[in-house]
């Protein structure tokens, strides 16, 4: 199977403690996080006595029926998850939240991100007799919690969080508590909110807007919050470090009505477009954005350059994620279905088309062809992020260099391949400049630079692993 879009989001989580409509609010919040994962969804609830849930494959309405949702009515605590598979097969057993049934107490678990030492820990746990039910990396935390010998749940959770490495936002629901933890570099986003006096937690603040909750703050790297009927316990399992939030959250993943670090994604995305215009300096008649995620960057580009911004591409609202066989003709048709040029905007004009990224180059190539077919005199492409040259091991589905055109081709080769008159990417410095102006502490940029902020144990070459084992 072949995904024409390339980059895909890496799951979304939501949790709420002590609200009479916990399941319904979780369902609505997951709906607003659907852009982060469309392969499966689930909700797990607790009421002080039982842990119970519903989950299924596909978009939220397909995954959880009204009857299933009704069966969760009355539970006051809930966690939910929308899934895009970055590790583990796309099958029901891997759809979260997971429920662990155990004599020490049942628990529900939802995870956004990717553990970079999950394989190593899993092998050790299996050697010790643990039996895994899924192929997902997320299951590792559940086993570590159940293996712990202490009766102090909080201490066990902190010890387990210190054993795992990678990018993660975890929600752990027990009968009498809900815990939320973020990796100690803050690569994945996690937000704290409140509705009707009840605390809630979400991957993005757009979930709070949807349910009418207020946005309190971002969860800090290495932080673990626990909610009980007594209130909130704010603790750290690891020493605080500056956040290394994923750069691509601003560029592409997050919804523009979300905020990170109190900065609107909409504004940051526009500023990335402005910065690109400063660096690109091309004359043209019109600037258009590839819908939806590049529309704000195109707006910012236009405001800085003075080149009018128009809607030159129309995105079909009814085409979801498009998986097709790797057949050129069918791929082209699928992109045509998704992005239709508006001839009146394009014909006879020098067009700058702004996109947020180029992964394999497939989509860009077909968009350029469509613009030329619609009569564009010149087509220039501006990318509002630097070239994607390195795999992401932190929860985005690009895990090999072979999937990234910029990993093995120069900008000029890519320009020729996708057939544009010019191709410009935003510089790494320019991107960080924008983030700095918006209160950043230094976002993760590993897929552009190869500088990975979190150790990638499972992915090291055998000789590097050996060196680490020997302590070299
Ligand atoms: S490597 Fe890239 S996509 Fe992955 S977390 Fe870092 S910035 Fe985000």
From TrEMBL:
Q: Which reaction does it catalyse?
A: 5-phospho-beta-D-ribosylamine + L-glutamate + diphosphate = 5-phospho-alpha-D-ribose 1-diphosphate + L-glutamine + H2O
Q: Which GO MF terms are attached to this record? A: 4 iron, 4 sulfur cluster binding; amidophosphoribosyltransferase activity; magnesium ion binding
| SUPFAM superfamilies, sorted | N-terminal nucleophile aminohydrolases (Ntn hydrolases), PRTase-like
Q: Name its GO BP terms in alphabetical order.
A: 'de novo' IMP biosynthetic process; purine nucleobase biosynthetic process
The residues annotated as the active site are 11 (nucleophile)
Name the positions where [4Fe-4S] cluster binds.
246, 392, 444, 447
Q: Which keywords fit this entry according to its UniProt record?
A: 4Fe-4S, Glutamine amidotransferase, Glycosyltransferase, Iron, Iron-sulfur, Magnesium, Metal-binding, Purine biosynthesis, Transferase
- What CDD domains does UniProt report for this protein, alphabetically? GPATase_N, PRTases_typeI
Q: What is this protein called?
A: Amidophosphoribosyltransferase
